[in-house]
Sequence to fold (528 residues):
Amino acid sequence: MVTIQSAPTLILPPKGEPLICFQGIYKSYNHKPVLRGVNLEVRCGETLVILGRSGAGKSVLTSMLVGLETPDAGTITLAGVELTGLRTETEWDRLRLQMGYLFQGSALYDSMTVGENIAFPLVHHRRLTLNQINQVVKEKLALVGLKEVEGLEPSALSGGMQRRVALARTLALNPHIIIYDEPTAGLDPITSDGIAHLIRDLQKSLEVTSILVTHDLRTARFVGDRLALLYDGRIVFLGSNQELEDSDNPEVKSFLSPISLTESEGI
Amino acid sequence: MQDRVLQLAGHQVVRFVDYMGQLTLFFVAAFTALFRPPWFFREVIAQMFHLGVKSLPLVAVAAFSVGLVLAMQTVGVLSWFGAANYIATIVGMSMVRELGPVLTALMVVGRAGSGMSAELGSMRVTRQIDAMRVSAVNPMKYLVGTRLLACMLVLPLLTGVADILGILGGWVIGVTQVGLTSKYYYQLTLKYISLNDVVPGVLKTVVFGAIIGTVGCFHGYHTTHGTFGVGQSTKAAVVSGSLLVLISDVFLTRISLLIWP
Fold:
């Protein structure tokens, strides 16, 4: 039996070298294709933003990195480990310990306090005393700009604070790769900006590889080193902020300047 | 018309067999996971508290009332034959062999089975179960296995309490209506009840616990369609749980009568 201990360990390439490769990824739900041959490369140490309209399959793509979804066809490699070849949950778990995933909507355990939420991965995967765990919880909360909220229930927090707590939980095991799934969805513009600043600051201080999924251009441009546009199940653009701005690609243009409500209604 | 009825009946049978197969696989996956480290003793104890201690008042009131009513209904008939004294034996035997286990199981299905399903269902639709998987914690073990084991451990204990309180309900009628002394009632209760009556009842409740835990968690774990789905799962958990407890009781009683006649 493959145990968490005997499963593959990530050996990260040098900064700027390819870390994650999606090759020819296909995925359908009820015979409706969502991804139609996605090819994408994520470099070590960068923040790659995957843009696309709602339902474009952005979250499906990133879910494949942590084994929540499996592609119908294609391969995904992460630091040389072929993820599509992993068969058991224990094999996945070894990799999951080195990745953090911030869910859209936070997904905090509502039967636990904020402190218990952040401590959850530590209790299960680190041999630490209670005092040490409390110390780490405080540190991670400070990283996301919160303090003295450990004893509160998640439901007592605002949406923005819940997102910060979820991020603190994501950081608990010091992951090498962080995946942000719509981190600003459902938040007001000011709170969204706060989260975007936090993501960029964390990126600078922790030097991890980040993949951010969003349809929020403002956040994408602010945090992303490179941006990819997922359209009609394929990556139709991959480049820097400036390249996105200068692109002649019709899909990019349509995404950047969607028809306004007043125009579409002929007002 | 006949073909249509047969077709419908056949379809329902296939669905039932398919459902039972899925439940069995789910039970095996959760139960076998319990035998591999890491161990979640604390979570099992927490679940025993949630499922057991918090169900205790409900089970106690229900069992006492049933014991009381059973004695009320039976004492008149026994009086016709001049056997009113045997009210103690009848209540005791009925509670220990049948009413205690089944009543407790049905109460726990209603309270804890629905609770488990709703809790896991909400966790599913808010992606908390996915978050647990991403944290490299096996939800089949941490959420399902612990609840399943807690149900299997707690049901016999609750049944013991239900048996005693049911007998106590009968005692109220025996003393106030028939005029038995407490000591005589106690002696009559114990005179005809042997281990052969107690053991099958207790063993049955372990199976009932497995059914309640499996069905409650299965429906919650596989919830789809958002909050609407949580309601559907909870309803399905209570209906299926109650039916499966009653159906399995028929077989378990038959088997226990063969082993302990």
Strands of chain A lie at 18-29, 32-43, 47-51, 73-78, 81-82, 99-102, 177-181, 209-214, 226-231, 234-239. Residues 1-7 of chain A have pLDDT under 50 and may be disordered. The first helix of chain A runs from residue 58 to 63.
